Sequence to fold (346 residues):
Amino acid sequence: MAGHIRKIATEEAWSIPEVAEELRKVARGPSQSLDKLLVAGVYDAENDTTGYAKSNFIEGLLDAEGQRLRLMDEHGVDMQLLALTAPGVQMFDADTAHDLSILANDRLAELCRKYPKRFTGLASMAPHSPKRAAKEMERAINDLKLNGFMINSHTNSEYLDDPKFWPILEAAEAMDRPIYIHPRAPSDGLKDPLRDNGMDSAMWGYGVEVGTHVVRMMAAGVFDRFPRLKIVIGHMGEAVPFWIWRITFMNSRAQKVGRAGKTELTMEEYFRRNFAVTTSGVEDPLALRYTIDRLGIENVMWAIDYPYQPVKPAVEFIDTFQCTDEERHALCHGNAERIFHIDPAG
Ligand code: 1DF
Ligand code: MN
Fold:
């Protein structure tokens, strides 16, 4: 295609039957997590109360080489950065989570080896056991040649600013690989008002959950300890770009009066230095231009969020966005190549 710009979609969901089966058990088990609404809908159609089952996402999630590749070909998507879909392994007990993360990483690596120009991948890990997770992270990069990591926000309602998770952050920083913090439904302490009318997931709850997660990390001074750690968040920054001026102002006031811990940099400085965002599921040109202005063009990447979002409008959105050629190259592939260590030669 004349004038084609390489397109790497950076938040693309995928799964394996073994994880799907375990999530079906979660749907039927005693968990009180808010994620159960969506998990039942996607993995246990008989117990769906949400209407999710009607969309048959499971078929798209378990497929890589069929419809997914056909749609990529049809719409000019060169590559998908795949990751095990939310909530990943994080609702399982620690040992099951660890074993399934290994299996998923092996399968993902196999797929990337088979289609090196079409698929790259983010590794999963079981944050429940951070030292063991860090070992798997090292294997995923050094042996499996995956590109970075995916964590689906909280684990048993605990967040990554908790020092117990530091081995995970340390490993990512040491290997210079980003951690993508993807949503799952809000943690137990946040969940009650977010149950109704689909507010648990992508409409609102997901953004509340990840926005809360990253503000916790910035305000806790995580990036003083890990200054080179890169965190990627989707959905045009989960509303944080729009809020960052106020977060910065109020955090600095809270620091002055001793309500917030001292940090070396301001919240906005951390946000610009330690974060990158993707456009997944927000096809709004006003929001994209604003986000570029806030974060810098070098920190914004295009994504689809296949199969939860349709491919065609996501492609049309980025093709018709008013920007310079240089900006479009950065958004569509250049930033992803740099941040996720993807071969720029294709
Ligand atoms: C949905 C959206 C589901 C996203 C997802 O994974 C997901 C959804 C379970 O619409 O239900 O990754 N998303 O990232 O926006
Ligand atoms: Mn997603």
Summary: The first helix runs from residue 17 to 28. The mean pLDDT is 97. The domain at 8-339 is CATH 3.20.20.140 (TIM Barrel). The radius of gyration is 19 Å.
